[in-house]
Amino acid sequence: MSQNKTAFKNNLLLGGIVLTLMFIILYLMARTFTFIIADYAWYEKFFGLLLLLAQAFILTHGFGYFLNLFRVINSEGKTGSENHLVQASLIDYPPVAIIVSSYREPLHVVEDTLISFYNLTYPNKKIYFLDDTRYDLPDWKPGEAEKYRLEIDDLCRRIGVNLFRRRWRGAKAGMINDFNDFLDKNPPEGFEFVSYVQGETIKPGDEKYIIVFDADQKPLPDFVEALVSRMEANPAVAFIQTPQYYSNFEHNRVSRGAGLQQAVFYEYICEGKSQQDAMFCCGTNVIFRREALRDVGGFDESSVTEDFATSLKFHLRGWKSAYLNKVSAFGDGPEDLGGYFKQQFRWALGTVGLFRTILSRLWKNPRELPIYKWWEYMLSGTHYFVGWVLFVLVISPILFILFNIPTYFARPELYFMFYVPYILMTFTMFIWSLRQRHYKASEIVSGVLLQAICFPVYMKASLLAVLGYRGTFKTTPKGQSLSLPMHALWPQVGLAALCFVAIIWAGMRIYYERELIMALSVTSFWCLYHFLILSAAVHFNHPLEEGLEESVENK
């Protein structure tokens, strides 16, 4: 009975997805047609084109999301994401290197992570701590660098961990590449290796696989077996990615929103990409085949998102990738807007920077990858242009209310005929699909709001990336919950104020002019909608919830 109920629900969901995809195509066609036939002045053409491109971006990425959703729902009960890879029984346990690369991370964060590695039940593992801290920088206080280095040595000695250092270059990607060279008996200049583990039977270099963790990620005991068994049974797979899950969300608004934003990505999007053999690496909680790393020349050191860039190298060389939707590690998300903005800036800069490479490779040799892989990489590479899209969507109703630009908004009958069915269907299916994975609507909205107020960061990062700025790798700050000064949020607050002014002005126009009542009402609604979204910046800028804020102040 329950199987029939599940099958009925899946069929209903699939029907809704197909209908949503049809509405997306229909609305895009209608918007394009109305733009072409509209009798615009030249300046209206310009702003109308911006709006059309912004909506086309949303529609295209929405189409990609629902297409992946269709694949996943259609495969459930057949070859779902957990079992579409063959899994071998582990009789012999191939040696595995468990590594964490750290750049000046808080000692208590590093200690908790290294201790958690000893809870892993996999028998044939070797634990390495890659200390990538730059002790030569001038921003250390007198004696602070030496003290931190000695504390790292003492920590590794006390826990029993192998310690690796080298002359700094290439950030995290360079560190892992140098470590791989060390394992291959080709150590970099100025390297330092100290084994603080007694009685180990694995020699450095015997490891067949490398499992990479960030400094704050703590795996569950059975993390390794599930991944190694699949890697052993699928020799063409270069890496298997698992989800990131933030555990510091209970009393922190930013980490909760960031975690829920991640959840949207790690559910259907990653599963759909994996079924297309287009999953990319996310930098932590991932296992790599060392043979594959050697084949592609190691991690890409030219990007601040080395994980995404290296994934493209694997696929171009014919290696496969996969995603296992099983939460097996817990970490810490950014705990204030400052940390969150830094994290998102780095991700956006590296991802859009790689988009230039994707576009170039596609133009020069379109047969280098199958079309569906190019499609997935194009979606991923263009995602962070969403900052510009959100900006255009916010200013468009303001321009109409204040200056009647563009006059398309004066035709609400077209709006209701095409846009309302599209937006209602996409919103309903988006919420419903995630509710099937036990997420509440309020939780999903929290993640969407946090991403929306990040639009100025995405705009800056994507512009710099298009201009060729590479940036430098910076870790996400941990263990702090600080509010930004209000002037740091001027884009969000300024646009929110402008939306409020536009709402008041629209009301005055309706009262005095008695014209365009429906058009002004619709655009006023969107100004109110955007005002509420942008105002969330003030909410998230006080990351600790009230009860915890009071306890912190009392201390």
So how many helices? 18
Characterize the quaternary organization of these chains: single chain
Mean pLDDT: 88
Shape: globular
* Helix and strand pattern: HHEHEHEHEEEHEHEHHEEHHHHHHHHH
Structural class: alpha/beta
In spatial order, strands of the major sheet run 4-3-2-1-5-8-7-9
Rg, rounded, reads: 25 Å
**In which range does the helix fraction lie?**
55-70%
Taking the sheet with the most strands, its summary is: 8 strands, mixed
Write down how many β-strands occur, each being a DSSP E stretch of 2 or more residues: 10
Percent strand equals 5-15%
Low-confidence stretches: 79-83, 548-555
Distance N to C terminus: 56 Å
Describe this entry's structure for a reader.
With 555 residues, the protein is an alpha/beta fold. Helices cover 58% and strands 8% of the residues. The protein is built from 18 helices and ten strands. It has helices at 2-37, 42-75, 107-117, 144-159, 171-183, 223-233, 253-275, 290-295, 306-316, 337-364, 371-382, 386-403, 412-435, 441-452, 455-466, 490-513, 517-540, 546-554, and strands at residues 96-102, 125-131, 162-165, 192-195, 209-213, 218-219, 237-241, 286-289, 320-323, 329-330. The protein has an eight-stranded mixed beta sheet, with helices on both faces. A two-stranded antiparallel ribbon has the order 6-10. Helix 3 (107-117) links the parallel strand 1 and strand 2. Helix 1 runs antiparallel to helix 13. The protein is globular and about 85 Å long. The chain starts with a helix and ends with a helix. Residues 79-83 and 548-555 have low confidence and may be disordered.
